[in-house]
From TrEMBL:
<dbReference type="Pfam" id="PF00072">
    <property type="entry name" value="Response_reg"/>
</dbReference>
<dbReference type="InterPro" id="IPR000792">
    <property type="entry name" value="Tscrpt_reg_LuxR_C"/>
</dbReference>
<keyword id="KW-0238">DNA-binding</keyword>
<feature type="modified residue" description="4-aspartylphosphate">
    <location>
        <position position="55"/>
    </location>
</feature>
<dbReference type="InterPro" id="IPR001789">
    <property type="entry name" value="Sig_transdc_resp-reg_receiver"/>
</dbReference>
<dbReference type="InterPro" id="IPR011006">
    <property type="entry name" value="CheY-like_superfamily"/>
</dbReference>
<feature type="domain" description="Response regulatory">
    <location>
        <begin position="4"/>
        <end position="122"/>
    </location>
</feature>
<dbReference type="Pfam" id="PF00196">
    <property type="entry name" value="GerE"/>
</dbReference>
<dbReference type="InterPro" id="IPR058245">
    <property type="entry name" value="NreC/VraR/RcsB-like_REC"/>
</dbReference>
<dbReference type="InterPro" id="IPR039420">
    <property type="entry name" value="WalR-like"/>
</dbReference>
<protein>
    <submittedName>
        <fullName>Response regulator transcription factor</fullName>
    </submittedName>
</protein>
<keyword id="KW-0804">Transcription</keyword>
<feature type="domain" description="HTH luxR-type">
    <location>
        <begin position="151"/>
        <end position="216"/>
    </location>
</feature>
<keyword id="KW-0597">Phosphoprotein</keyword>
<dbReference type="InterPro" id="IPR016032">
    <property type="entry name" value="Sig_transdc_resp-reg_C-effctor"/>
</dbReference>
<keyword id="KW-0805">Transcription regulation</keyword>
Length: 223
């Protein structure tokens, strides 16, 4: 069955462009459009999309609050949110990730990247581009802890190896890259990542990366 996509952006021309790209793919179907967050909520309830391609800055309700309501407790469906941001990295993207977005994509990304990102998110994975994520978190380091705050109690529930894995996830490494870094199998890494998400109450790798920065476990700008 085709992946059902809802387009949410306050610029009609952008929505038209996205629709043309996505409808050229046999496994993708654009089921609706919305020009702001409130319309998006209505469309999600009515259309039950698999993926919502969400702009951040919109009138009436922005993409952050819409994402929070779509992915939060009591949500009406299984929709995943893929956030769109501008090239200079919107400061609200961190808030959107914290709110439950499964990843983010630059608005000027090539068509094949847009298509692949939707497929990845629809499959339940996180769209976490290492270089962009690092730039994002480093750029807004002033909004994150300095590293001098007390360590969150939840971190103490992790084993040493799980902490290592969390740090590497925060750097944007894939399971294969983490496996190579730690000289273990990808299956072992996947198990560790699952334990980290469960113990910290996180839904995916994107939220794990944000948590690592917010908790002070990883410092912006550090290698």
């Amino acid at each position: 069955m085709a992946i059902r996509v809802l387009l949410v952006d306050d610029q009609p021309l952008l929505r038209t462009g996205f629709r043309m790209i996505l409808e050229a793919e046999q496994d993708l179907a654009v089921v609706g459009e919305a020009g702001d967050g409130l319309q998006a909520l209505d469309q999600v309830r009515a259309l039950q999309p698999d993926v919502v391609l969400m702009d951040i800055r919109m009138p009436r309700m922005d993409g952050v609050e819409a994402t929070r309501q779509i992915t939060g407790p009591g949500r009406d469906g299984p929709a995943k949110v893929l956030v769109l941001t501008t090239f200079d990295l919107d400061e609200y993207v961190v808030e959107a990730l914290r709110a439950g977005a499964s990843g983010f994509l630059l608005k000027d990304a090539p068509a094949d990247e847009l298509v692949q990102a939707i497929r990845v998110v629809a499959a339940g994975e996180a769209m976490l581009a290492p270089s962009i994520t690092r730039r994002l978190l480093d750029k807004y380091a002033g909004h994150l802890p300095s590293g001098e705050e007390p360590v969150p109690p939840a971190l103490n529930t992790l084993t040493e190896r799980e902490v290592e894995v969390l740090k590497l996830v925060a750097r944007g490494l894939s399971n294969a890259e983490i496996a190579a870094e730690l000289f273990v199998s990808e299956t072992t890494v996947k198990t560790h990542v699952g334990h980290v998400l469960t113990k910290l109450g996180l839904r995916d790798r994107v939220q794990a990366a944000v948590y690592a920065y917010e908790s002070g476990l990883v410092r912006p700008g550090a290698q």
